[in-house]
């Protein structure tokens, strides 16, 4: 049986495959749940509640999940998350009312947090520090691929017949797709057993969240990750509006967003090469600053070819930011708290995906819609600045 130190690691391929399937499920099902909400009589307010609950439940459970993983229960957490990536999809298809659909949404959000924490934590538990960025790059490549295929597949099934969209049929189809994660999870088990740590023993080495956040570099790393995730969400939500205001077709906007995703795939494929040539922090602050400048330019340079350049550049930078911040927080903490810091990073991501878009949307009531890109870009520029400063002084 291959161990974490074996040169050939089929379990890692299984982990990437698990990530692809799971992310395809999350990306496709979340949109289907929105349509299902409308079918069941939900309003725009209810849609907002569904979105918030998907992110808020993981926000409050992230640290507890990280502690379990740090005690050696990564595979158990992965299996639980896998189950909660399948059953809630079926529950959404069966949901007779909005209450049941809300429960399904919360469980699916929890499933995503469980699988994400376990998958990310298995990498620093299994590979040396010099290989972390490359391995995180492959893992986040799986995220990008899954997100790219999930929505088109779900949409194609829902719209396969003439007439109204078949949302329930599409949810059942995505249930079958998500069930494939079980096969991938079995492959991950080839990694071997991780020794468990008792609760009392783990408590001796466990550090409080505030103590972990006080580690030099932790706050700028989490800030860089938060601003990237918020920028991606704002770009996806508001580029259609910018396109509509400037006469761009739905097809053009869709291709532009797809180009952004493909650029992230490319950067994650070559991140190992880039980090061998440049320092991780230098690469991170450069990516944040360049992405921020591109996003600020989106409402200004609205010709399709200009937008293509801006989105491709920003997407390439986004692809670098996430694995680089994963490596950064992983190497800042001791092994006993490694999954905990990854969980705090993910909790920060969830918080940013709720708070920053909400604040930006409120500003559109008193300012042009382009203000959201200015905010997202300014935050990324700020993240680049604090990352750069971290190379020279404490923050």
Automatic annotation (TrEMBL):
GO terms for molecular function: transmembrane transporter activity. One of its GO terms (cellular component) is plasma membrane. SUPFAM superfamilies: MFS general substrate transporter. It is found in: Cell membrane. InterPro entries: MFS (IPR011701), MFS_dom (IPR020846), MFS_trans_sf (IPR036259), Sugar_transport-like (IPR052528). It is a multi-pass membrane protein. Its main location: membrane. The keyword RNA-binding does not apply. It comes from the Bacteria. Keywords: Membrane, Transmembrane, Transmembrane helix. PANTHER family: INTEGRAL MEMBRANE TRANSPORT PROTEIN (PTHR23526:SF4), INTEGRAL MEMBRANE TRANSPORT PROTEIN-RELATED (PTHR23526). This is Putative MFS family arabinose efflux permease. Residues 1-394 form the Major facilitator superfamily (MFS) profile domain. The chain crosses the membrane at residues 46-66, 73-94, 100-124, 136-158, 170-190, 221-241, 253-271, 283-302, 308-333, 354-381. It comes from Brevibacterium marinum.
């Amino acid at each position: 049986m291959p161990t974490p130190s074996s040169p050939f690691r089929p379990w890692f391929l299984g982990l990437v495959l698990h990530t692809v399937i799971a992310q395809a499920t999350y990306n496709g099902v979340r949109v289907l749940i929105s349509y299902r909400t409308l079918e069941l009589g939900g309003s725009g307010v209810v849609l907002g509640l569904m979105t918030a609950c998907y992110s808020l439940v993981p926000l409050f459970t992230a640290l507890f999940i990280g502690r379990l993983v740090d005690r050696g229960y990564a595979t158990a957490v992965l299996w639980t998350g896998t189950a909660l990536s399948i059953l809630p999809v079926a529950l959404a298809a069966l949901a007779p009312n909005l209450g049941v659909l809300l429960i399904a949404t919360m469980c699916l959000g929890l499933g995503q947090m469980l699988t994400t924490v376990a998958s990310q934590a298995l990498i620093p538990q299994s590979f040396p520090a010099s290989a972390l960025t490359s391995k995180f790059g492959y893992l986040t490549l799986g995220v990008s691929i899954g997100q790219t295929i999930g929505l088109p597949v779900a949409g194609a099934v829902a719209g396969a017949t003439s007439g109204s969209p078949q949302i329930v049929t599409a949810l059942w189809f995505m249930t079958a797709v998500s069930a494939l994660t079980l096969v991938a999870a079995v492959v991950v088990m080839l990694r071997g057993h991780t020794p468990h740590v008792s609760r009392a023993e783990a408590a001796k080495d466990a550090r409080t969240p505030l103590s972990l956040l006080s580690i030099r570099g932790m706050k700028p790393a989490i800030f860089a990750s938060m601003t990237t995730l918020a920028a991606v969400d704002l770009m996806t939500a508001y580029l259609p509006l910018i396109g509509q205001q400037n006469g761009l077709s739905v097809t053009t906007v869709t291709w532009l967003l797809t180009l952004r995703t493909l650029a992230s795939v490319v950067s994650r494929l070559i991140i190992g090469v880039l980090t061998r040539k440049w320092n991780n922090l230098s690469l991170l602050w450069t990516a944040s600053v360049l992405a921020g400048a591109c996003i600020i330019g989106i409402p200004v340079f609205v010709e399709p070819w200009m937008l293509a350049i801006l989105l491709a550049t920003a997407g390439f930078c986004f692809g670098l930011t996430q694995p680089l911040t994963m490596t950064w927080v992983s190497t800042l903490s001791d092994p006993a708290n490694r999954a905990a810091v990854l969980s705090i990073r993910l909790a920060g991501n969830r918080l940013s995906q709720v708070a920053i878009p909400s604040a930006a949307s409120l500003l559109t009531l008193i300012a042009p819609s382009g203000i959201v890109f200015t905010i997202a870009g300014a935050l990324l520029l700020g993240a680049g600045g604090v990352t750069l400063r971290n190379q020279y002084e404490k923050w």
